[in-house]
Amino acid sequence: MIRFSDGTLSIKVVNTNDLDIELISVHDEKYKSQYQISGIYLQPTGDDVEYIAIEIDNVDNDFADDIGDMYIDYMYDDGNVWTAEIIPFTMHDYDMYNSTDIRIKNNIDEFDFVSITDNTISFIGDDIEISQSMYIPKGYTVIINAGQNINLTNSAYIISYSRIESKGTDLNEVNFCSSDGTGRGLYVCQAPEYSSLEYTSFTNLDTPKSGIWGLTGSVTFYESDVNISNCSFNDNVCEDALNIVRSDFVISTVCFQGHLVMHLMLTSQ
Q1: Which of 3, 11, 183, 252 sits at a 20 to 30 Å CA gap from 68?
Q2: Closest Cα to residue 56, out of 41, 88, 34?
Q3: How far apart are CA 64 and CA 28, in angstroms?
Q4: Is 63 helix (H, G, I), strand (E, B) or coil?
Q5: pLDDT in tens, 103-127
């Protein structure tokens, strides 16, 4: 909820992340207007949504009138600052909150091209279109074979709680792309074993987003160790093409191309 009256901007926010955060500032996309926040800490919300009220004084009328161009900076205890879009919605309408599909942990049985053998998941075919978001549970190794094209459409993304092995070659790359420009990338979260990306390209991808949850990277490894070699990130629509958070990593011969705010974000443990 957002309200503005007599120069005071009132915002009610909720923390849907898994960790405590500190709020830093509210601003427009290009930081032409920025208002500092101090001393406000948010714990992760549980099943019951708990909103925290923020009031900021001496706010410019033009800034307050453009609700569609408001962002909030916040920080984890590691000191790195993150940015999220402020999305206004009715306090007593929980449709947006409840539509945040990040809570889904497994829906791979909904995809007919998925093959499961023992603890290995692979995809059947060379040209694979994923038009709904895929959630891969823990306990597997996900194999993407040389020459496979993973086309994310209809705002779909992949979240994997298992390690990813993308096995492209010099003459036969793996390609993650979005033919309709809406695909929202790859997020590997708390995978217990090293992932590897070899000769793999990521092109024309946005960032994972669902309801009030979202990331800043088109490819993100969170608490998931990874080796990345001979890969490229091209024309992705995101703040960070590659985001590695609280993970060990080895990166070699990687190319970043396109108009981005930042190509690579690395966050220590």
Answers
A1: 183
A2: 34
A3: 10
A4: helix
A5: 677 999 999 999 999 999 999 999 9
